[in-house]
Description:
With about 280 residues, the protein is α/β, with parallel strands linked by helices. It has helices spanning about 45-55, 70-75, 75-85, 115-120, 195-210, 225-235, 255-260; strands spanning about 5-10, 25-30, 35-40, 65, 90, 100-105, 105-110, 130, 135-140, 140-145, 160, 180, 185-190, 210-220, 240, 245-250, 275-280. The longest helix is centred in the C-terminal third of the chain and has 12 residues, at about 195-210. One of its GO terms (molecular function) is transferase activity.
Amino acid sequence: MQQRSTTITILADNCAAPGLKTEHGLSFFIEKEDITILFDTACDNTLLYNAGALGVDLSQTELLVLSHGHYDHTGGVAEVLFLAPNANIYLHPAAFQERYSIRNGTAKPTSMPDHARSAIINLPQQQIHRVSKPTMLCSGIGITGPIPRLTSYENPGGPFFLDTTGKQPDPIDDDLSLWIESENGLIIVTGCCHAGLINTIRSIVEHTGEKRIAALIGGFHLSAASTERLEKTVKELKEYDIRQIVPCHCTGKNATEYLAQFLGCPVEAGYAGLKLEFQNPPQV
């Protein structure tokens, strides 16, 4: 039987192809056989424009997955649910928390916008799936739920707090990632990887038993990573059979160049408008 493919289209990112908008945010449209998944919804004003320009019909979204509750991944939720009111949404309960980043003594809200929170809460309860453990969305696609923080050198990646005074660090426990089975191993899709890229990979590999990785795609939150962290990350990544890496969003230019320099697989910076295609596993 002829194999069918999985396609992943980057709808929003910090970089974009000519004619598309950019912003500090991330969104992927995933199509696999008979299922359509929107993974994150970016920030403010790029998602609908870029989707239209790319011919992606967001009203066809069946599953909406939120990697975590930060505004730059949830800003378009209300617009998506207006277009696709019957979509099922998957997120960790902590995604609704009030949270902040604090730099130079100034607290900046990083929470999910109120309009996004209201759009979710007002859905029929059967459409809201609060994820607290690894969960299969459909055959061959799963999400991690909370990821164990086991490495000593990985951290949430920034000055994140649950209060405006900086007394309550935010571990961003709601961080989750998605995996897709393909002919050449797992496609791992991340939002910001606040749990750490290596922690994320370890968790997914342990859960699935699949050690081959067809692609790592998403934000890795390495923009402020120390040289030591980058060195240890590369050392760990070399332990896996990785075919392709597509860093996006919060990975950072320096980290992307570092990965490209020291890893043996292709490393291509992602951008809005990039479309990736993978062969699905043979049907039994």
